[in-house]
Amino acid sequence: MFTIALCVYATISVLEAVDLYLPINIMMISMFIAGVLGVTSYNIRISATQSYVPDTVRGRLNGVFRMLCSAGTIVGQLLSGALAEFFDLRLIVVAFSAINLLAVVFVMYRGRGHVKKIYNVQV
Which of 94, 120, 78, 117 lies closest to 19, judged by CA? Predict the structure, then answer.
């Protein structure tokens, strides 16, 4: 499951980076694929963490995770909105996708020894 999730995260980053450079018909297909992959990765991540984390701390983990995701989304939107005043929108999307891809490499891939324990747990 870890390898699937890693490939999905990287693929979504690349698809989102090139979306605004594609013709509209191909862009729609790309966004559909990214959406399907996003839902798949969400289900893999949630089921893996829910089966790995003990019941006693599951609610706290979910709360902290959602709070961090929301904070990251808010900061990213504010930063990209501010940068859009000075730079081309497509360049900003590529830059943020590159940051996301770097996070996939440095967090998920380099930490694979720890993360595989969560994703590849036997139920």
Answer: 94
Any idea of the CA torsion for 88, 7, 34, 80, to the nearest 10 degrees? -30
DSSP characters for 36-75? HHHHHHHHHHHHHHHHHS-TTTHHHHHHHHHHHHHHHHHH
Q: How many CB atoms lie within 10 A of CB 13?
A: 20
Tens of pLDDT along 81-94? Answer: 999 999 999 999 99
User: pTM, whole model, 2 decimals?
Assistant: 0.80
Tell whether the torsion through CA atoms of 9, 11, 15 and 18 is positive or negative: positive
